[in-house]
Automatic annotation (TrEMBL):
Alphabetized GO MF terms: acyltransferase activity, transferring groups other than amino-acyl groups
Domain of life: Bacteria
Gene3D superfamilies, alphabetized: 3.40.630.30
Species assigned in the record: Pseudofrankia inefficax (strain DSM 45817 / CECT 9037 / DDB 130130 / EuI1c) (Frankia inefficax)
Protein name, per record: GCN5-related N-acetyltransferase
InterPro entries: Acyl_CoA_acyltransferase, Bact_Acetyltransf, GNAT_dom
Cross-referenced Pfam families: Acetyltransf_1
Listed SUPFAM superfamilies: Acyl-CoA N-acyltransferases (Nat) (SSF55729)
């Protein structure tokens, strides 16, 4: 993988299976890929989007699932947002996030929310999400805070 130049990627909607290896490696290395299937991952209105190199290597992934917010509002949950560390800071994560927003808009729009890692708060803020409530510590993963926006 050439890391000297921006990675040339294409985005594609895929089944959850295509996301699992990168989800596991970047987000939950203490679990197995099979343990990285989330509730609602296989619902028909769930969207999984990956960023692919020309050779088909998955270097980014994001998913959006129909799931109510922690405060009980109907909405869509963003999950499994991950970019391979070798191709970060090239806008791939932002493109994936935009694709999930497009999906929610295509379903009529609504509330988009996520449990954001505190380190990723500036990334989500740039996409128009804001924090809600107080951060908490997720064992083995780190500090999280809820973020949301209307799309
Ligand atoms: C968050 C993440 C998906 C962003 O992917 P990306 O392809 O680098 O996204 P972009 O290139 O569009 O944006 C990069 C920006 O996000 C910042 N960033 C956000 N969260 C970050 C994190 N956890 N680690 C490192 N950088 C992060 C980068 O510093 C960069 O900011 P800058 O543009 O001001 O320099 C990627 O950093 C990642 O996979 N991090 C580890 C897993 C993670 O935290 N996922 C989010 C779970 S809620």
């Amino acid at each position: 993988m050439n890391t000297d130049q921006p990675a040339d990627v294409r985005l594609e909607r895929v089944s959850v299976e295509a996301t699992l290896e990168l989800r596991q490696r970047v987000l939950r290395p203490h679990l197995t890929p099979g343990e990285l299937v989330f509730p609602h991952d296989r619902e028909p209105d769930t969207a999984h989007v990956v960023a692919l190199l020309a050779d088909g290597t998955v270097v980014g992934t994001a998913s959006v699932l129909h799931e109510g917010s922690p405060w009980g509002a109907p909405g869509w949950r963003l999950r499994g947002m991950a970019t391979d560390e070798r191709v970060r800071d090239q806008g791939i994560g932002s493109r994936l996030l935009s694709a999930t927003i497009d999906h929610v808009r295509g379903q009529g729009g609504g509330l988009l929310w996520c449990n954001a890692r505190v380190r990723a708060v500036p990334f989500y803020r740039r996409a128009g999400l804001e924090t809600r409530g107080e951060p908490w510590e997720e064992p083995l993963i780190g500090s999280h805070i809820v973020m949301w926006r209307l799309v």
